[in-house]
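My hope is that you will study the record closing this message with an eye to the fold:
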Amino acid sequence: MSTSKKGILLILILSNIFIFTGCWNYSEIDEQVIVSAIAIDKGQNGKKFHVSAEIILIAQGSNAEVSTAIVESDGNTMLESLRNMISTTSQKLYHGQCKVMVIGKQLAREGIAETLDFPLRDHEVRKDMFVVVSQADTAQEILETEALINPVNGFEIDTVLNTDVGSLSQVKPVRVIDSINVLATEGKSLAVPTISLIKDNNEKKTTSLSGLAIFKRDKLIGFLSEEESKMYQFITDSVNNTALSVRTSEDSNDYVCFEVFENKTTVKPSKIKDALNFEIKINSEVSLDETQGFEIDGKKLGEIYTRNLKNRVENLIDNAKKFYKIDIFGFGHLLDLKNTKLWEKYKKNWDETFLKASFTVSPQVKVRGSGTTGEKIMVGD
């Protein structure tokens, strides 16, 4: 049996233990179906919601093979939709192992407050499950794909999101409770990871993280690309470890690649005459991991890194002003934390104030490691 399947069986066994240990809403395990993920789209047949659930199936016998199935239903509330699935499963759904909620982009454009209300209030639904927005036509399509590693899509997406935190820093995973807290916080905008459909080497559809979904209040207004999402992580001090490829010069097609080991971003708001200024200091510790046609020089490497990072961060801030016209980074919330008096003055028309504010981006870098020594690889005739 594969390691992933053994892990799933262990999770299911532990789930059974918790169900059997005298909860006030005790229910026999053989009367429940375990849900690993739910997808929520605009409703069909005149209903508000179309909800799909990935359920885990375990084949009887010595091999105990794990597989999944998708059940779906429509309703005017989330609970109604999920309870209607009993007519298909003949058993109640157990949400204790539900890892992710996938929200369809069409529904997200209309608002997600009602969608998040259900897990907030229902005692059986986890408030720490991840939230992602589907860039496919529907959220249901995400659950219908074949995962590459784990036979359960919900568990696969959960693993990918946790891996991104430590190795990619492309997105910052967002849980249900996080989303609710951000929506209730002045000066902040919600940014949720997005997931897309791609084809693997065998032309089968699978899923991949693809950037961030940007919200104005609870309504989806646009998407950040993978590249823009990484710069968003730098601005919001969310980079743990990542790789950053940069051109050696504007007119060159040669790149160097840095591994970012540590990063700390601080933002200092101040008032200059009648306008606000935010000083963004980005301090990185990196090593050179790859070079193309570039003579290695520690000083030049530092200049390349800081110049490139400064340009990318400034471009994202400019694009946020131009295309979204709102503070997607949470600068207003930072202003509230660091200078409440100024925030009280500007908060009523904060988005307009953000558009007029100036930003000073000041990256600094320490290049370490043996990658900065030696010459480029020479190729003879």
